[in-house]
Amino acid sequence: MKTLTKVIVGTLLAIAVGFGVYFVLQQWGVLIMDPDSDPTQLAGNAMTKTRAMFVEKSDAIQTLTAGILEDTDLELLAGEDGTVWMRRGAGDPVPAALEDEAAQAALPEVFGVYESGGRVQQVLVKADAVLFYTAYPKGGCAGFLYEKELGGTAYYDYVELVENWKIFYRIPAK
């Protein structure tokens, strides 16, 4: 319960700060809001959906992460038909068959349907983190990641979730 409270409070704080920055920029005339094409709005929507996805299936996400954490250069990809594919390094994708049984069992849930409408599209295991990509809005990206060591990654901009978990994002250029 304590972890869930931290996630909710942190996310609400990040959203409030984002809206504050957005309001100031809009007042200065910097932004003209078109919700279907504004990169900032698209990234914000993707981050909100990503947070909802993490909260919804955090147990399965953490189980999968624990099972693949040390398997650097592993990439998991969502197939159009629901198949989860895996690739090591520059190899060809093959249907996912993980060595860790619990992680294998978590795959369908993590890559499955979320009530928020989101979808995990790609998972990358790096030496310092596991990145779950959930959206690619107009050239940007959003998702959540697990850092092996706090403060050990600098791939994207981040919003703290809880402990070693963060929401990451890249707002595309306008």
What does this structure look like?
It is a single chain. This protein is of the alpha+beta class and 174 residues long. 37% of the residues lie in helices and 24% in strands. An 8-stranded antiparallel β-sheet has the order 3-2-1-4-5-6-8-7. The longest helix is centred in the N-terminal third of the chain and has 26 residues. 28% of the residues are buried. The model has no long low-confidence stretch (mean pLDDT 82).
Q: Concise description?
A:
The chain contains 4 helices and 8 strands; from the N terminus they run αααβββαβββββ.
SSE topology sketch:
Layout: H1 2-27, H2 39-56, H3 58-68, E1 74-78, E2 84-88, E3 94-95, H4 101-110, E4 122-125, E5 129-135, E6 141-147, E7 157-162, E8 165-170
Antiparallel strand pairs: 1-2, 1-4, 2-3, 4-5, 5-6, 6-8, 7-8
Helix pairs in contact: 1-2, 3-4
Strand order of the largest sheet: 3-2-1-4-5-6-8-7
Please summarize the sheet with the most strands. 8 strands, antiparallel
**Fraction of residues in helix:** 25-40%
Count of beta strands: 8
How much of the sequence lies in strands comes to 15-25%
Order of helices and strands: HHHEEEHEEEEE
Shape: globular
User: N-to-C terminal Cα separation, in Å?
Assistant: 40 Å
Compute the CA-based radius of gyration.
Answer: 17 Å
Q: What is the count of helical runs?
A: 4
Q: Which structural class matches the secondary elements?
A: alpha+beta
Low-pLDDT stretches: none
Q: Report mean pLDDT, rounded to a whole number.
A: 82
